[in-house]
Amino acid sequence: MGDIKNHPILDIPERKAINFSFDGKILTGYEGMVISSALFLNNIKTFGHHVKDRSPQGIFCANGQCSQCNVIANRIPVKACMTPLIRDMIIESCNGLPELPAEDFLVDIGDSEIIDIEILVIGAGPAGLSATKILGEHNLNMILIDDKDRLGGKLVLQTHKFFGSQEDVYAGKRGIDIARILGESIESLPNVQVWLNSVCIAVFSDGFVGILKNNKEYILVKPKRLLIATGAREKMLIFPGNTLPGVYGAGAFQTLVNRDLVKAAEKVFIIGGGNVGLIAGYHAIQAGIEVVGLIEAMSQCGGYKVHEDKLRRLGVPIYTNHTIVSANGEKKVESITIGQLDKKGKILSGTEKSFNCDTILIAVGLNPVDEFFRKAKEFNMKVWVAGDAQEIAEASAAIFTGRIEALKILQEKGIPFREKMDDLHRFAKLMKAKPPQPLKADFHFKEEGIYPVFYCTQEIPCNPCTSVCDQGQIKTVDDLITKLPYFKGEKDCLGCGKCIAVCPGLAVVLHDYRKQKDYPLVTFPLELPETKLEKGHKIIVVSNEKELGEYEIHRARILPEFPKTQLITIKLPSEIAKQAVAIKLVSTSYHEPIEKYKKSVTEDDTIVCRCERVTVGEIRKWIQSGVKDFNELKALTKAGMGSCGAKTCTHLINQIFREEGIPTENITPGTKRPLFIEVPMGIFAGIRNKKESV
Question: In a 10 Å sphere around its CB, with 0-12 CB exposed, 13-18 middle and 19+ buried, how is residue 246 labelled?
Fold first, then answer.
């Protein structure tokens, strides 16, 4: 634990250390860092205990959605993941609500400010920023709000390079850089107001949108047109131990590690083989955190094959057809038990095995944060929706949908534009598509000259390598973005290495037979060391199946255009060169399972509603008795009545309904709260200041 001092991709800024206290103990954090990250920095993962059963509480989403991280800061209950640390802040565990003051105080109550605006955009991620850029460039007066302290949304958590095309979605650049580019594109637009640290609380039937601006001032905004780009929230799973501190979403992990530079774990285990889980594993390794393993319930990972290959080549065991049996530990995660699934999706008895770890990352999908859109539609407001709030997909797709919805707004207003909507829709569809099956690779090596070899075998939308070749010799079949690249060879390769450095999948290797046919020079990409490697340093060469041996570096260089990717050249025997696909710094050391863990909690005792500590057994009992109304379940069990407003448990309870044979169309959905985000009553009432009691 502690802060990250060195990182191969992220620059470590100067940060101002400040003192604060937690439960009476003086600790040190960094000014402006959110409370949850400051506590993790000090190896504190338990932020309080639930009033119902004294169970330990920690973070889950780190995105302001679930309220699991509540603490008492300067006598006020706050979400630790959304509240900046200030000097000498007094923080206490949240074991229930704090005591009310002994006396009442008179206060001034002011009227909320009301603002009329042409367009309000909620969410400053890739979709919201892309839309704002287009609308702002057409001189429309607008406000863009986001609940974080910087622009970019989830892009600010992404240290890997993006897929797609360079022209359309900045392919080959890292998410952190795309966030900066998109942010800078709107900074100079004089008609665009940007409100950071500003939370949308509710959409009202009279067309007003309630916003907590800068976490201090309640403002009513009345937009003529509203664009929702609020992203997504992470799904949870039902398993024993699922609420232990140390079990949290992959996005929370990336927030701690990549945004706040906190080494949040020593050993992690990942649940889910989609792009989110695979990428989180790679981010963990970049931060010096060991990935003990990754499991996927399906027969193969659902994410991009190149992301999976990166983990496998670095020695991460990936168990397909496996699921989590339990998270184990008394007060925090100490180990995980996994088991193999049969063809019916049931755990095969006797296949359970346990591994030591201190963190379990849940990466099993996302749910759209679309409640503002649904309310606005219900109230007949002029509203559009983009990004994950519209449909869960990659961030590159969100850039497209943001543009598309912005153009729809222009269209509705009768403002002409040059972009072709059909082309944008087509590209958005490509970026949203699930990755197809990998193709069988058949590589041919010509033992002369110099040329790149492409180890990408999946037809996904990606072609930055074709854009950077100065000779124009890298093409895709029929020039389609989804086809695999190849080297034409009509002109000599310059050996510049740009195609290697730009590749998001680290899947391009350069072969150079010009000097020695039997010992070609082979150049690989490397992103993991914090410092540039030198000639003579030994490094391990790997194929897709095994380590091929340790070899000395012949040359190491970094291209100015790609400062965080090293190009490592090694002289290899010809037969080894034909097998080599990547390099790594250390040899793989696999973890042996520990003694089988005996479950002490049954599935019926497993928590489904985190806020109110309602179990699967309670929900199942009432469903079996005939309850099909979510509101009735609320009244009977309190499920969905907690701080998060049923954001975390709704899809889990719907899953139990399905398991009990109740079709979705027969379930009466729960009534959504008028306010989607908690807000202190004082702010909501417009209280200006306290006065002495009289």
Answer: buried
| Backbone angles phi and psi of 442, in degrees to 5 | -140, 90
Residue with tokens 């990336």: 254
Distance from C-alpha of 376 to C-alpha of 536, rounded to nearest angstrom: 63
Alpha helices in 363-505 (DSSP H): 371-378, 395-413, 421-432, 464-468, 498-502
Rounded to an integer, what distance in angstroms lies between the CA atom of residue 230 and that of residue 127? 9
> What domains sit in the chain, N to C, each tagged with a CATH number?
17-97+236-362 (3.50.50.60), 113-232+368-432 (3.50.50.60), 450-584 (no CATH), 602-694 (1.10.10)
* Helix (H/G/I), strand (E/B), else coil: 396: helix
The closest of 40, 141, 34 to 89, measured between CA atoms, is 34
Strands (E), 134-181: 142-145
Question: Is residue 227 within 8 Å of residue 386, measured between CB atoms?
Answer: yes
Tokens matching residue 581 = 């696909």
CB 604 within 8 A of CB 581: no
Alpha-carbon gap, residue 133 to 592, rounded angstroms: 52
User: Can you tell me the distance from the alpha carbon of 386 to that of 229, in angstroms, rounded to the nearest whole number?
Assistant: 5
Angle CA(363)–CA(367)–CA(368) in degrees, nearest 5? 135
Number of H helices, E strands in the chain: 17, 37
Q: Rounded to an integer, what distance in angstroms lies between the CA atom of residue 44 and that of residue 55?
A: 15
Helix (H) or strand (E) holding 107: strand 107-109
Residues 99, 219, 385: CA angle, nearest 5 degrees:
110
Torsion of CA 173, 258, 300, 597, to 10 degrees: 170
Q: Does an H or E element contain 132, and which?
A: helix 126-137
β-strand pairing of 359-362 with 267-271 = parallel
Amino acid code (one letter) for 690: K
Q: What is the pTM of this model?
A: 0.94
Measure the CA–CA gap between 140 and 411, rounded to whole angstroms: 13
Alpha helices per DSSP H over 243-370: 250-254, 275-286, 305-313
- C-alpha closest to that of 636 among 660, 674, 663, 609: 609
Write out the H or E segment, with its range, that includes residue 360: strand 359-362
The string of pLDDT tens digits covering residues 369-382 is 999 999 999 999 99
Phi, psi of 470 (to 5 degrees): -65, -20
Helix (H, G, I), strand (E, B) or coil at 55: coil
Q: 688 exposed, middle or buried (CB, 10 Å; 0-12, 13-18, 19+)?
A: exposed
Residues of the chain with pLDDT under 50: 690-694
d(CA 242, CA 691): 46
Neighbours of 136 (CB within 10 A): 22
Beta strand 192-195 with 142-145 is parallel
Q: Report the distance separating Cα 28 and Cα 23, nearest Å.
A: 14
What pLDDT, in 10s, does the model give residues 476-488? 988 899 999 999 9
Place of tokens 């992959």: 250
- Please give the Cα distance from 394 to 282 (Å, whole number): 17
Cβ atoms of 388 and 232 within 8 Å: the answer is yes
| CB 642 within 8 Å of CB 653 | no
Instruction: Give me 117's structure tokens.
Output: 């605006």
pLDDT score of 599 = 56
Instruction: Give 49's strand partners.
Output: 56
Across the beta sheet with 335-340, the strand order is: 322-328, 335-340, 353-356
CA neighbor of 511 nearest in space, from 440, 563, 581: 581
Please state whether beta strands 383-385 and 217-228 pair in parallel, antiparallel, or not at all (unpaired): parallel
